[in-house]
Amino acid sequence: MSQATAIPNAYLPAANQLIDGRFWLLFYNGGTFEEYKAMPNALRFENKTYIKAGWNSDLNTVHYKEGVPAIAA
What distance, in Å, lies between the first and last C-alpha atoms of the chain? Predict the structure, then answer.
């Protein structure tokens, strides 16, 4: 019998859009600042790198824009 395996730390985007020449991802969350902070600062989706760009507490959304994260040496 075939079996499915969970992927830890997987996030499902609610939207993936091209805005002004840059790709953006949108995720829904519970609406608290703690949940926003718990989301990763950077992630990969469809061979693109995205960085956390903002949070809308009224709509309970977290936004990521295509870009390169700063990584400390």
Answer: 47
